[in-house]
Design goal:
It is built from 24 helices and 30 strands. It is an alpha/beta fold and 720 residues long. The chain has three domains: 212 residues, Rossmann fold, CATH 3.40.50; 192 residues, 3-Layer(aba) Sandwich (Dimethylsulfoxide Reductase, domain 2), CATH 3.40.228.10; 113 residues, Barwin-like endoglucanases (Beta Barrel), CATH 2.40.40.20. Strand 2 and strand 3 form a beta hairpin. Bound molecules: ligand MGD (2 copies), iron/sulfur cluster (SF4) and molybdenum atom. Molybdenum atom (MO) binds next to loops.
Amino acid sequence: MQTVSTPTHCPYCALQCGMNLTPLPEGGVEVTERTDFPVNRGALCSKGRTAPALLAPGVRLTSPLVRSEGVLVPATWDEALGRIAGEISRTRAEHGPDALGVFGGGGLTNEKAYALGKFARVVLGTSQIDYNGRFCMSSAAAAGMRAFGLDRGLPFPLEDVPRTGCVILVGSNLAETMPPALRYLTELKENGGTLIVVDPRRTRTAEQADLHLAPRPGTDLALALGLLHLIVAEGRTDEAYIRERTSGWEDARAAAMAHWPEYVERITGVSVPQLREAVRLFCAPQAAMVLTARGPEQQSQGTDTVGAWINLCLATGRAGRPLSGYGCLTGQGNGQGGREHGQKADQLPGYRKLTDPAARRHVAEVWGVDPDALPGPGRSAYELLDALGTDIRALLLMGSNPVVSAPRAAHIEDRLRSVGFLAVCDVVLSETAQLADVVLPVTQWAEETGTTTSLEGRVLLRRRALPAPPGVRSDLEVLHELAARLGVEKGFPTDPEEVFEELRRASAGGPADYSGITYRRLAEENGLFWPCPAPADAQECEDASLDVLPDDPAYDEAAPVLHPGSPRLFLDRFATEDGRARFAAVSYRGVAEEPDDAYPVLLTTGRVVAQYQSGAQTRRVEELNAAAPGPYVEMHPRLAERLGASDGEAVAVVSRRGRAVAPVRISRAIRPDTVFMPFHWPGEGRANSLTNPALDPTSRMPEFKVCAVRLERVGGVPSQ
Ligand SMILES: Nc1nc2c(c(=O)[nH]1)N[C@H]1C(S)=C(S)[C@@H](COP(=O)(O)OP(=O)(O)OC[C@H]3O[C@@H](n4cnc5c(=O)[nH]c(N)nc54)[C@H](O)[C@@H]3O)O[C@H]1N2
Ligand SMILES: Nc1nc2c(c(=O)[nH]1)N[C@H]1C(S)=C(S)[C@@H](COP(=O)(O)OP(=O)(O)OC[C@H]3O[C@@H](n4cnc5c(=O)[nH]c(N)nc54)[C@H](O)[C@@H]3O)O[C@H]1N2
Ligand code: SF4
Ligand SMILES: [Mo]
């Protein structure tokens, strides 16, 4: 058999590594190296390499399931879709459109995220839609918006990282969460640059650092303010830059000056000499970057915390200049695009605001509806899940597994059980799908085409490499069918390219402008960075960008009118109204739940390399389970000794919200006042049974990264 390999991208994280998929003669598909994609240059982590394991029929869902007499039983598509449409109509008639909830995911392609947002607003007429990206990078997005007027996680490509002078990496463990990206940090050091890692744990990433700062979890805001204090005190600010390119310095400066190094040392546990050393390393070179990930962001003051880190860049003239700037390492496969096209509670496609009358008019016109018919902003993810069974009576969930991944998960599980009707689209029977009234089995990345936008802001084409098995349908087909059954026959095409063409028009003129991007260009150009507007003349755009390929003789002629995309932002001006970046005048405040006598230890949570998120996918892959078989509680030997627990022994971790049991893993890599649990597992070792849903007031991000717990010996070995 002639095998043709298809160049595409990984289904998992936001690095969106390039890979080739080669169908095997005996069925299935093999992942092979794809070296032409510059971001990973062929390298993959164990998750990407083993992703095809989930394509096998035994592992995934291949038939719709409908709950009958309490159990999920196989059903036809007609029955399953009919049941969902019926429940939606009934709920809406009885309780109004806002009793219908929709929950999406940052793993969905741009086309799906766009169609889901449109479905909620146009077909259901509900304001109640949000998605799991709220739990991910929302604090960085809010801070980026506030400072720069635009949120594109990285405003520069990763290839700039090794060429800067110093990187402060705050709360990212990319050696485990994006292994191929570690290369950018090792190259930075080879080039003579320095790396500072801020993490309460000495992770595999922190081991690479020239300087590792290990603050107490939840104190990054104080740390960043203390560093800014020293920058000012040591006269290391860039006054000309501050004058010409920023606003709000006086207030931010005054706030930082109240954070004396000794005070910051007391809060964070990072010594004054270490603070000084960080300032010295950061300020020495011409160019420097600050990159944040979930560590500082998943806090109830995450937006202010990121704002304080951005302040460091602004005060030293390191934003909107070559090889310098602030960036957020977005997490999910389409974590960037997923936050741009309308599955977020307050948003319309193109990163437009639902409250902006001009945005409403533009999108309503593309959708062929009355702008006044579009609902307003709805609840944030946690608040939406928390309202299930009360204000929200029916939920359509696509691309998330909140039973494992939501904060205060036992409560959310209870809400999901009490909602009148739950429909879940998934590729596997996740813990959340197990609670559903109807489960729809959908196609997977290798079986469907679509675009994602990577953490760099690079829009990429994922290509279909093999047919889907009988019995499954794509998310787009599901939305098309449901819309039709609810009386909307048009506007929900099943062909992803057709959806993308509409997305182009809907995003045109918005902050995340995709109008100059086409599938054909993406196929030829290895991705395009947004904003990538179409040329002013729409006809010219159709001619140029849709039909002319680089190998066409007409291309040279057309090329000048094709926007090249925007790998680097803000070099001339920021996206704020006056073109200036805005300092955040923020002051330290503590976490929502400080330790006390009853709950004396801090819990932080995160990831391990071999499992992905709620584990719905990766816990079904043998090789990954062998590498990371279950939850654990990482603790310092001193804490273990105090508890009297030995390595491998089961302990209970108890918070005000619940209890989890998992074996101890003793490690000197963690602070003695803190324990760490990965959150990938359900059941008794579920870390989210413990976490605190205290929300950041701006981003509505829950405080996943810190809560107060106590530890109890339970004796014996845990049962998982
Ligand atoms: N293997 C794997 N890779 C993934 C994922 C996965 O689930 N598994 N998920 C993807 C997604 S969606 C995301 S969002 C990214 C997340 O990528 P990362 O942000 O790198 O992952 P985390 O492990 O959640 O958190 C990073 C680090 O923050 C530290 N930390 C904890 N509390 C604090 C604090 O208060 N301050 C600071 N400064 N640091 C703190 C933790 O010790 C941890 O090492 O990974 C993506 N890649
Ligand atoms: N304690 C703690 N909790 C956390 C975090 C933490 O650091 N600590 N991190 C948070 C973060 S950053 C994130 S991003 C969330 C993620 O947590 P979740 O939202 O639960 O993410 P996943 O496990 O990726 O869930 C995706 C689900 O969608 C399915 N799926 C995959 N692709 C598709 C598709 O194309 N269509 C459909 N319909 N389904 C699909 C998968 O099988 C899976 O069941 O967890 C958050 N929870
Ligand atoms: S680093 Fe992310 S994108 Fe790359 S192979 Fe691993 S999971 Fe996939
Ligand atoms: Mo995430």
